[in-house]
Amino acid sequence: MVRAVEWVDEAGVVRLIDQTQLPSSEVYLDVSTVDALVAAIKSLAVRGAPALGAVGALGVVVAMAQGVRENWTADQLAKAVDVVRQARPTAVNLAWGVDQVWPLAADGADAVLARAKQIIAEDEAANRALSVIGADWILARTGKQKVRVVTHCNTGALATTAWGTAYGIIHELHDRGALELVYADETRPLLQGSRLTSWELTQDRIPHVVEADGAASSTILRGLVDVAIIGADRIAANGDSANKVGSVALALAAARAGIPFVVAAPSSTVDLATASGDDIEIELRDDEEVLTFHGVRTAPLGAAGFNPAFDVTPQDLISAIVTEHGVVEPDRDPDPRLLARIAG
Fold first, then answer.
1. Model's pTM, two decimal places?
2. Which range marks the domain in which residue 332 is found?
């Protein structure tokens, strides 16, 4: 299984697979400075909420080691850690990972690293547990022996520490012989679906087709899929869910077609401190991502771009939110207290 992020003890570095190079090249980055780590986060060399949680935790280790090498003051170290924490605003897991380990800094780098490694192990365990729970729920809800799935963006091992969230459910269904076909949205503008999800599906020999984002709603309305499954970068206390832009179109189509729309994420992605989706900051990325393709201009010179990285699906469009602690069904019971039960 590919590892999107790991700590290499002998080298004292964070090792990342550079996801901007996939699927044509499998390149790894060994990161030992805060600037290099933040650059990897912002360029999407590493991405996906659970993977960013691990990176946030390991980023504190990187900052502490760099601080020792460069004789930083306590204030310089705190500022460097905060730079890591704020590198991407929408995904809650990055800040969560930093916050999990930073209080241990007074106990030394070994204590911080031990907790970061624990976070990585816990994430894989959570992903595997929620995959079983999610697959059980989908088969019970649809009443089908085999399902056709549509998914958006990338939620596999590349987006996590291992296994995957929404992708993990897909993998679990495949392993049970309960999966017929996956429709993988290409996921514009950076093609995480066609570049990354299709790469993982190919590696795992899971039958799939890649479709244009604009085709997804029609695919659902034509009755070609039985369930939509996505991940999440932040789930608000009321059940509103932020995910890669384009996700809400699947939710709207699924509601019209009467098929389940499932959000899968570890409990660390549930942010009970954020009341609703209205309070989630939506990251705006560089215009050039939508005005160019592989460095070639595709829009007229002088045209401006609008490039929100995420959108928010309202809780009443979500059939199930699945974490390692269980399932809630916001469209059937919107009581926000239910979400606390699966937040861990």
1. 0.94
2. 126-341
